[in-house]
Design goal:
Chain lengths: 167, 654
């Protein structure tokens, strides 16, 4: 087990020694330009973002130029995006705006997860028989020494056999 | 030969109808002789479709352009290996390929079960033949790959294969995906048979466990290779774009993974029988739905080279199988329901149920996001796009929850986790995770999701390593074997368990790669020879240009020298190709791969007298870990699939 405690020191030592300076290495000065292009979707049918689409003869080259020009004119990120929507329509946005009906796109998966979680919890709760657990009531808790040995042996054998089973 | 292929497919079609009736009648009358006849019909169908495939391959290799499909997807100068891959490059060929793989699966299932599973086999065969029949209808009447060109029409040379498909990855990626999609037909067929016969114990699950694992393995490899293909071929520096067709392959993978986990509970505790039926049905539907999305063109996709008008046939087939499966499920609901009981909320069983919920939630969010443009258009009348930013926002937090469970699940005991065992199992991974947090912060990982992901990677990775460590040292102490032998023997003694842990480790590798993408750098610039472009800590100097004429294309190639801290770090040679036959341009990327990052270069074009080159550079950290993760995943799944020796019951154990 000692190795398990030494391992983190060695691991992080190697990590620091290898010098992966993620924060400085990949800082990039045209982040605004990239951020806007990454929020726009190519309309040629490739489904890629404007920032990465390299299809020949595609509209993206023109869109990127327009974004650059608008930024040069001093427009803010929001203004550039709005200008693009007014030129190409709402579908140029790579993700639906979080308003009105579109909000359901964002909300529903989490609603599904939370609702599913509640259902699962209530179902599983019903499956767990109401036995007062010693862990939950300290007064009823028996120390390991108080538990009779045959029972412990029996339990550990069951545990071992369960471990042996294919999972 | 084309005529022979065409006739063999027609005979296979009629034989499928016959086989379907024979299998059902054999089960109804309990006639073993008829059952044997049904088995032979299945083998016959497979042989006939094999003849069809060989015939099409022959026409492709011999460039018989009098066949429309051959003229559409190959040309005289298409290399022979890509002539073979043309079999699944187009719709008609890929549907034939699908039919063929399904027929081979059916034969293997028959050989495997003809002696030991007489109760389930007839209806399982009937179900497989229903699916086979649907594809043979397509092969014969809707998308016949042997369709000749119009009479009196001569084609001197074909159009050639789409340049983007001329990549070694495309030789393996589609077949693996198909093997995955089609593979789920077998457990689905046995599930249907279990419902039809009323034999709803665990037999159908134990009979198809390896089938499910194999289908899941193929789908996993197919998806990973698809990512690799997109990465090296499409030139946009990424491996996953949440394209509808990518999503279509991901959805059955998610439900299939949930199924693989939840059947363990059924095997151990005879619980979740209805749920497992629902999961395998869902996985099969989603496999067909994936093909529907690929073929129908209802949603625009980068895979649109296979879009066509056969969508309605797929949607019709989907509706039929969904309705009939649900009807069966309702019919057998009373028998399927069992008394479910768990001993504690903090148990392995509960964690499996929670992971099922998360898998299904991700699947729902992917499906919802994929279909939302259609929903929005129907409701608001406005076209919108649902692209990567949406899927990342929704799925990353849920995915991180899943990663957390990947670490927690194996640490919980079956039935009940006592506080002592909880403490014992969680202490080291939790300590490591807490220690790692400030280290990652100091390294600059400060955005929320990458930070959480990095810490969870340490937690999950260490929890898996701890499981191996504990088992290995215990075995070493008990048997005196050296550590390596103890590790190997321990893994082989309980292949499913440790194979599963290896797969979990692979998932950690995938997440390392995904986390790295938060630090991607991308720069585009037009350079004159001798000029340099800076990206991250690297300089890319444009040192040379040349034009090469190759058999089927002309290529513009630039040489980029990479400098790091002023010293040479390597060279990249991105290309821009123009294919003669199709007159299509294509970008060939060049990548310098290390475990730390990929230096990825694409050439947008070369222009002017000075050969000014427009170059795009991506510095993508940790991408290699994803491909290594793919290999580990395959290894782990193969370990889990290896046969287990039957348990010998000794006098003592009696």
């Amino acid at each position: 087990m000692k190795l398990l405690y030494i391992a983190p020191v060695v691991f992080f030592g190697i990590l620091l020694w290898s010098g992966i300076p993620l924060h400085q290495a990949y800082a990039y000065d045209t982040q605004q330009y990239e951020a806007i292009n990454s929020s726009l979707s190519c309309q040629c049918g490739c489904g890629l973002l404007v920032s990465v689409c390299t299809m020949d003869g595609c509209m993206c080259e023109g869109v990127r130029k327009q974004v650059g020009q608008m930024l040069d004119e001093g427009r803010s990120e929001d203004e550039v995006v709005q200008a693009m929507v007014s030129i190409y329509g709402e579908q140029i946005l790579a993700a639906p705006p979080k308003s009105g009906f579109n909000l359901s796109a964002y909300v529903l998966p989490f609603f599904f997860l939370i609702f599913g979680g509640i259902v699962l919890y209530s179902v599983v709760k019903r499956w767990v028989p109401v036995i007062e657990s010693p862990d939950e009531n300290p007064e009823n808790a028996a120390s390991p020494a108080q538990q009779d040995e045959p029972d412990l042996k029996h339990k550990s054998r069951i545990e071992e056999e369960l471990k042996e089973l294919d999972i | 030969m084309a005529t022979l292929g065409s006739i063999s497919l027609q005979v296979a079609f009629f034989l499928s109808i016959a086989g379907l009736f024979v299998a059902v009648y054999a089960r109804k009358q309990s006639r073993e002789d008829l059952m044997e006849a049904a088995n032979r019909i299945v083998i016959g169908i497979s042989l006939l479709i094999t003849v069809g495939v060989i015939a099409l391959l022959r026409e492709l290799l011999l460039s018989n352009f009098q066949i429309e499909y051959v003229a559409q997807y190959t040309s005289r100068n298409t290399p022979w290996n890509y002539k073979i891959t043309a079999l699944w490059a187009g719709q008609d060929g890929s549907l034939l390929f699908w039919s063929w793989l399904l027929s081979i699966y059916a034969v293997v299932a028959v050989i495997q079960n003809r002696k030991r599973n007489l109760n389930l086999l007839p209806y399982a065969i009937a179900t497989i033949l229903v699916v086979q029949l649907f594809f043979l209808i397509l092969n014969n009447f809707i998308a016949n790959p042997f369709q000749p060109v119009p009479p009196g029409f001569t084609i001197p040379d074909g159009q050639g294969l789409n340049p983007q498909l001329q990549n070694p990855g495309m030789m393996i990626h589609p077949p693996m995906l198909y093997l995955g999609y089609i593979g789920f037909t077998i457990p689905f067929a046995f599930a249907m048979s279990a419902m039809l016969t009323g034999k709803l114990d665990n037999l159908w699950i134990t009979s198809t466990r390896r089938w499910t694992l194999f289908a899941w393995l193929c789908l996993s490899i197919g998806i990973t290779l698809g990512g690799k293909w997109a990465y090296v071929e499409l030139g946009w520096g990424g491996y996953w774009a949440w394209d509808p067709v990518e999503n279509a392959s991901f959805m059955p993978w998610l439900t299939g993974t949930a199924f693989l986990h939840s059947v363990i509970i059924q095997e151990k505790k005879n619980m979740l029988r209805v749920w497992n039926m629902v999961l395998i049905m869902l996985t099969f539907f989603l496999s067909i739905f994936g093909t529907f999305l690929t073929r129908s063109g209802v949603i625009s996709s980068v895979h649109s080279f296979t879009a066509s008008s056969i969508g309605p046939f797929f949607s019709g087939f989907l509706v039929i199988i969904i309705l009939s499966s649900i009807a069966l499920l309702i019919w057998r609901m009373d028998v399927l329901k069992t008394r479910n009981q768990l001993e504690s909320l903090t148990s392995r069983e509960s964690s499996f149920l929670l992971n099922n919920l998360i898998f299904i939630a991700i699947c729902f969010s992917v499906l919802w996001g994929t279909m939302f443009p259609l929903v929005s258009e129907a409701v608001r009348g406005a076209k919108i796009t649902v692209g990567p930013p949406f899927f990342s926002q929704v799925n990353v937090p849920i995915g991180l929850l899943l990663l957390f469970l990947t670490g927690v699940g194996p640490l919980l005991a079956w039935r009940r986790t006592s506080f002592e065992s909880f403490k014992r199992n969680f202490m080291v991974p939790v300590i490591l995770a807490f220690v790692s947090a400030p280290v990652f912060w100091l390294l600059g990982v400060r955005s929320l999701y990458p930070f959480v992901s990095a810490v969870l990677i340490i937690f999950v990775g260490s929890s898996i390593i701890q499981e191996f460590w504990k088992g290995m040292t215990a075995r070493h102490r008990m048997t005196g074997e050296n550590y390596v032998r103890a590790l190997v023997n321990m893994t082989l003694k309980n292949k499913s368990r440790f194979g599963g842990y290896i797969v979990h480790l692979a998932i950690v590798f995938y997440f390392i790669g995904f986390t790295g993408s938060a630090f991607n750098v991308e720069v585009e610039k037009t350079l004159q020879p001798g000029e340099a472009l800076e990206a991250g800590m690297f300089s890319f100097v444009y040192t040379d240009h040349q034009q090469l004429n190759r058999p089927n294309h002309v290529a513009q190639i630039v040489e980029l020298e990479i400098l790091k801290d002023g010293e040479s770090y390597g060279k990249l040679y991105p290309e821009k190709r123009m294919y003669f036959r199709s007159n299509q341009p294509n970008t060939e990327v060049d990548i310098l791969q290390t475990w730390r990052e990929d230096l990825y270069a694409t050439l947008a074009g070369v222009s002017g007298e000075n050969n000014a080159a427009t170059i795009r550079i991506f510095v993508n950290p940790l991408v290699q870990w994803i491909w290594i993760g793919g290999a580990i995943l395959a290894f782990g799944t193969i370990i889990a699939m290896l046969p287990t020796k039957p348990r010998i019951v000794t006098e003592k154990s009696k």
